[in-house]
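[09:14] KT: can someone run the structure on this one? pasting the chain below
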Amino acid sequence: MSEIKKTADRNDPISSEAYEHLLDRYQFTVKELTPGKLIRGKIVKVTSSHVLVDIGFKSEGMIPIEDFEGDNAQSLRLGGEVEAILERIDPRDGSLLLSKRRADTLRALDYLERAYLGQGWVQGKIVERVKGGFIVNVGIKTFLPENHADIRAVKDPDKLIGNVFKFKVVRFDRKSETAVLSRKLFLLDEKEKRKRRIFSKLVKGEKVKGQVKSITNFGAFIDIGGVEGLLHISDMSWGKINHPSELFTVGQEVEVVVLDFDEAEERISLGYKQLTEDPWLRVPEKYPVGSKVNGKVISLADFGAFVELEKGVEGLIHVSDLTWSKKPVHPRKILSPGQEVTVVVLDINQEARRISLGLKQASPHPLELLKQRLGPGSRVKGKITSLTDFGAFMQIEKDIEGLIHISDISWEKIKHPSEKLKVGQEVEAVILNIDVEKQKVSLGIKQLEGDIWEDFFARHKVGDIVQVKVVRITDFGVFVEITPGIEGVVFLSELDERRVDHPSELFSGGEQRLAKIIKMNPREKKISLSFRQAQSELQKLEYQKYLQSQNDRLTLGDIMRDQLRHLPLAKEKGKKKEGS
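[09:31] RB: done, structure tokens below
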């Protein structure tokens, strides 16, 4: 009663008797009308300045129309219920002056206090942006620092205005009716709860659905109910991909497999390719070594081309298996990405997930085709492409070269192919042999003239005396050229009647002499000759001629003396006797 009396005294001083009369007149009790009491009533009338509320007494309550501004305007309707705080009683007419705004404030303070003390949350609407943050209406105006508006920095703060969110109360003072909120802490708390809930349900190998949140060079992060897991690029496809964006886009709904997780580390590993069987499990039986298969070129490198046989199964055509040509060719000169090709499986390493493929092996070797058209003895024309110490290479057809060995260039003895040939020269040669397995073609130029050895052996016999030229001197004798391309040997014992320690004592290179053929081996193309026997034969011939030129008066003694004079041995003995 004293509180009501004080209220009345402050507004319109009246006597105590008058105040008591006022209470009796309007049937009020002190208990019911304690100032600050929360009163519930029903809106019965709206004027330009007040809202009249029926609170169950003869006198109606009056709430200033300003208390229904803003968000409170929605509650302003006839018949609608409203709560307000009793401010005072008008002593003149007994009307009750109420404050809805004060009721909202007290209710908001209670709401904030419960959340603050109980580590709960409050819901409010961001209504205004101010320096350093935002104003949030939770029944009263509270402050939200900008760095607590979200977990991450807000790119466009103005977009938050007008939105209703949940917040944690980080600071509260009832006396000053102030509070500081944090949406960031609420989101982190909710994220932690979701994380614990998700981890409690995770099972390795289980399929889960999620949404692609972000994409990086090494993978994609998938939201699986509020917790993000990593889908590594290596677990996206059984085949090769260069970037995750080839398969996924941000916001895409996907189904993935839980590969592994660690709640303490907050780590979840996800897989996409594991939704299907590993195609490599059936590679050996599906693509046996030696089989021809079709594929598509997916990429080119300096060392070869990668071919996709099916999704997740790729093989490499090494640059050496692209073409039968021995010249190095870059893959892009032969193939292009997207091109369909037929290849041969050369090797499979299932453990390393590697398949070696061959493009050239899918078609016949050019030598096989050449051998079908041409055989040994066939004549071909072509250009000399290179010279080596051991011979010359001649291009027969495109991608086919043959070797003319130095011994098959000329019947004459030559030290280097450049003595007879030069690069770029057009020549004709005879095919001597085609070895497909070793990929070799043997050619000969000298064979165009026929076999001079056969001709020589046909026209000569043991005992013939021939003109020769010394071409090489060795410790055991000298090699002589009988005719161009035909050589023989005169061993040490056949050099002279006299003892010779080394051939260089009697002979020099290029010297020409007569020699007697003493042995021939046509099969091995070997000829042995003798200077000594040729000299003896010539002496005999000369002596016979001499005899024929003499008259019949010569006696036997004259003949014997003349013969002894022509023998070198006899001369030597005569010299030794004279010396002794």
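[09:33] KT: thanks! The chain has a mean pLDDT of 85.
[09:34] RB: yep, looked fine to me
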